[in-house]
Design goal:
Elements: H1 17-27, E1 32-43, E2 46-57, E3 60-67, H2 70-85
Antiparallel strand pairs: 1-2, 2-3
Helix pairs in contact: 1-2
Length: 90
């Protein structure tokens, strides 16, 4: 698995980690897929959906994120994956 050799010191704004991960992996010729798992949560007689998302690079699960909205969970997983790949610093 290849990764960027120069970590970026400029961290993108929240919400754009997903786009950055996609761009980095496309540039490296790597495949990105997502495992999206909705989880129903009950509280005070109300039900809501919470999301668990895993970024999968070239068939290997990398890292996961979770949140009340799919895009939030996906962006969290993307940020963690970018850190693992050395593209951004924690």
């Amino acid at each position: 698995m290849s990764s960027s050799s120069n970590p970026s010191s400029a961290v993108p704004a929240a919400g754009s980690f997903t786009r950055l991960l996609n761009n980095v992996l496309q540039g490296n010729g790597q495949d990105l897929r997502w495992r999206e798992e909705p989880v129903e949560v009950s509280h005070d007689k109300a039900k809501s959906t919470y999301w668990n998302v895993t970024a999968i690079v070239d068939g290997d699960p990398m890292d996961c994120g979770s949140g009340p909205k799919l895009r939030v969970a996906k962006d969290q997983a993307a940020k963690k994956t970018l850190i693992l790949l050395g593209t951004i610093e924690p």
